[in-house]
Prior knowledge:
This protein has helices spanning 32-36, 54-67, 76-90, 132-135, 165-176, 219-230, 275-287, 290-295; strands at residues 12-15, 18-21, 39-41, 44-47, 50-51, 95-103, 117-125, 139-143, 181-185, 191-194, 198-203, 206-210, 235-238, 250-255, 259-266, 269-270. By secondary structure, the chain is an alpha+beta fold.
Amino acid sequence: MAGPAFDQREGHIWYNGDYVDWKDAKMHVLSHGLHYASSVFEGVRAYGGEIFKLEQHTNRLFASADMLGMEMPYSREELNRIQIEILEKEGLQDAYLRPIVWRGSEMMGISAQSNRINVAVAAWEWPSYFKPEDRLKGLRLATAEWRRPDPRTIPCRAKAAGLYMICTLSKHKVERQGFNDAMMLDFEGYIAEATGANIFFTKNGVLHTPTPDCFLDGITRQTTIELAKRRGIEVIERKIRPEELGDFEECFLTGTAVEVTPVSVIDNYGFTPGDITKQLMDDYTNEVTPKAIAAE
Ligand code: PMP
């Protein structure tokens, strides 16, 4: 996104209980979160000043912290209140919010039993940039070199910093080849998700999406399934093999950032956004209007 670097912006960041000047929201270079990836976070959006699915995001943040053995020093209610408050304080309407929790620098080594659990919340303006007609052109994906790990090897349901290492590697590689994003397989070779979004396909009017058994069951994914069911569209959650890509007609990604965005290419396979994708894009847009969020 264009604009000043993320450490050079104006405004305030909520940091361990206080609002600090944006440029002063720093941590020490010997932070456990930086060295050993003991960090969990959320990506949340506000539309017209209303935060979409705030409670679900906060619950996931607490669940992620718990999976990394980090005891949250604030309550869910406090975290919710801070996120509402920061929007008002910063005068933000359409915004992205980034709550983050990490272990500090009291001990340096693998064990971090007495390290402080730090919490910060930043928020910045995030308008809906892309017109529907541009989004309908679709994203171009290529299969990632790295796979989503076996649930026995990492707490894969946490939104934890450590799980993004392979996402950045995969995305960089395909971006160099001219693609927008990477589609990741799981450790068994089934289709999993994109690097920061879940994936859906259509076949004969039915939605197919991978079972989220080793990756995030995204909040947007859950919303999209609900919206599809409301329209009477059947949704099948199952293991999907990459060899099946040629059988599908439409493909789209879901996520807080991408919302519902069509995919036009995965490797050598082409997809055309059709009625189902367009319907769910519209339904999602309606779901995130400030009025709809307030009525939730
Ligand atoms: N998978 C990954 C790896 C993600 O980073 C995200 C974005 N949080 C998602 C899926 C989609 O999750 P959500 O719809 O809750 O934003």
